[in-house]
Amino acid sequence: MTFRIAPSILSADFARLGEEVRNVISAGGDLIHFDVMDNHYVPNLTIGPMVCKAIRPHTKVPIDVHLMVRPVDRLVPDFAKAGANVISFHPEASEHINRTLSLIQDHNCQAGLAFNPNTPLDYLDEVMNRIDLVLIMLVNPGFSGQSFIPEALHKLRDARKRINAYSAQTGRKIYLEVDGGVNTENIARIAAAGADTFVAGSAIFDQPDYQKVIHNMRNALVYHTSKG
Ligand code: DX5
Ligand code: ZN
């Protein structure tokens, strides 16, 4: 399995965002995770398409936009135009999930569906053939720096089973991303539950040496893989 590390810039120094993006990618990050909060769907307010556009020239890696907003659709074209490559949203926040997925893919972005700890995976049943990524929240969305909820690993295992069954049938790849509380100590355990893409905010940006943290995360993942 190829593992991807997605540093979440929510924990970066916003006064030096371009530089932070360049530094964390040269330190080994595979994609930039971009958290959009609206003080409505979640009780926090962060960044929008203008900031996405501003960081786009600073890196060639995919920008992975995580929409924690309601309504969703209005923002999709704006983020696509601002250079997003992946756009994920929470199914409860969309009036018409299929329409939102189409909107994202019509704008040449990969589409992801994000699940809170209390959101059932049943939403996947109808749309597995439409999505490129499943995002499992390991915390309740809204803030960086929270501890991961161990029970969320059940949902992660369940999502892995569903994805594997679907991929075996169709040959189509769907990424399985986790978000919230990921760090060097727990990343191997989370990988063992089925994740292939790991968002990490405070675990990376709160440390002085990004390269060292990402290196330690990859070592933990290699160890997990070698254990089978
Ligand atoms: C939380 C956001 C996360 C957050 C992760 O609602 O979706 O992406 O930035 O931060 P950490 O890794 O610090 O939990
Ligand atoms: Zn996120």
TrEMBL record:
One of its GO terms (biological process) is reductive pentose-phosphate cycle. PROSITE patterns: RIBUL_P_3_EPIMER_1 (PS01085). Pfam families: Ribul_P_3_epim (PF00834). Pathway: Carbohydrate degradation. The active site is at residues 35, 179. Its cofactor is a divalent metal cation; Co(2+); Mn(2+); Zn(2+). Substrate binds at residues 8, 66, 142-145, 179-181, 201-202. InterPro entries: Ribul_P_3_epim, Ribul_P_3_epim-like. A divalent metal cation binds at residues 33, 35, 66, 179. It is an enzyme of class 5 (isomerase). GO terms for molecular function: D-ribulose-phosphate 3-epimerase activity; metal ion binding. Coiled coil: none annotated. Keywords: Calvin cycle, Carbohydrate metabolism, Isomerase, Metal-binding. Binds 1 divalent metal cation per subunit. Belongs to the ribulose-phosphate 3-epimerase family. Catalyzes the reversible epimerization of D-ribulose 5-phosphate to D-xylulose 5-phosphate. This is Ribulose-phosphate 3-epimerase. It comes from Candidatus Vallotiella hemipterorum. The gene is rpe.
